[in-house]
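Justification of resources, computational component.

The compute hours requested in this renewal are based largely on the per-chain cost of generating structure records like the one below. Each record pairs the submitted sequence with a full structure-token output. That output is archived, and it is also reused by downstream analysis tasks.
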Amino acid sequence: LECVGHGASMDTAIGIARPGGAVGRVGVPQHTEIPGSLPAFFGNITIGGGPAPVRAYLDELLPDVLAGRIEPGRVFDRNVGLDGVPDGYRAMADREAIKVMVTP
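The structure output for this chain reads:
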């Protein structure tokens, strides 16, 4: 399971997968080509993944978050207001933050 989105982490995930194995990608790709595509091809390694299916869970979970029954803060390491969104994206791009919560 590759969760970072950088080429080096994908290379590592493919490098440690057994022949015929699979790598699941949940990190947002930070590259235009799939790293390690030749080793994956010759190792018959399946690569799968995509964006999180947020809409599938939003209606069920959002009311619990807003009511305080679920604490999403344990997932986030930075909080910004609407005016700070550009800074939040910069912090993630610069690897100063992993997940940024935007609060209105």
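The mean pLDDT is 87. The beta strands are 22-25, 46-49, 78-80, 100-102.
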